[in-house]
Design goal:
Elements lengths: L2 H15 L5 E8 L5 E5 L6 E17 L3 E9 L5 E7 L11 E5 L8 E8 L5 E7 L7 E8 L3 E3 L2 E2 L6 H23 L1
Helix pairs in contact: 1-2
């Protein structure tokens, strides 16, 4: 292998390491003992007739980069959850104001809700987790994945690189070691 070819491989691996990776952040909470409200319908066309007096929790966050973000909320114990996204402020007495998106079931599995949504950098968002009916409440886990760092409240949550980044980094390191070894042999 020529030195020029080795240097090209090293440069390619190094460049791939710095490619913008998707960031994933998770946070957990509970609606147990939370305040109550009348939740909106998932399509935000009005308020629910059976979602009166349901418990909710609010998770404020913002993102460092604009783009498409994936939200997946899992109700621990598989209680029937609903999730909503608000921009700027959230007022439980004006449920449709600033509401951007709602969802009941992201998959066919009970207790998993969420959606994809384009977010703007450095804008305050509120993620609301609530139940379908008053008997639906409990612990939840929220995962947000997208192009920027997700900051909940005032604490930045750890960033988890995509698995492909580790593979490319390993390839780059292997190329460096191979080039170094061949250079020592010549």
């Amino acid at each position: 292998m020529s030195v020029k070819y080795s240097i090209s491989l090293i440069a390619l691996a190094a460049a791939a390491t710095f490619v913008s990776a998707a960031h994933a952040s998770t946070i957990s909470g509970t609606t147990t003992l939370g305040p109550t409200w009348t939740r909106p319908l998932a399509n935000l066309s009005g308020l629910s007739g059976i979602g009166i007096g349901v418990r909710y929790s609010v998770t404020p966050f913002f993102v460092s980069s604009a783009g498409l973000y994936d939200f997946t909320s899992t109700a621990v114990g598989f209680w029937d959850s609903f999730t909503f996204l608000y921009q700027n402020t959230f007022d439980p007495t004006s449920q449709l104001t600033n509401a951007l998106r709602g969802n009941d079931d992201k998959t066919f599995l009970l207790g998993i809700s969420g959606f994809d949504f384009n977010l703007t950098a450095n804008t305050q968002y509120q993620f609301v987790t609530t139940g379908r009916a008053p008997a639906n409440f409990g612990a939840w886990d929220l995962s947000i994945t997208g192009p920027g760092t997700i900051t909940f409240g005032t604490i930045t949550v750890g960033v988890v690189p995509e698995p492909g980044i580790f593979a490319l980094t390993g390839l780059g390191l292997a190329g460096v070691l191979l080039a170094t070894r061949r250079r020592k042999q010549n």
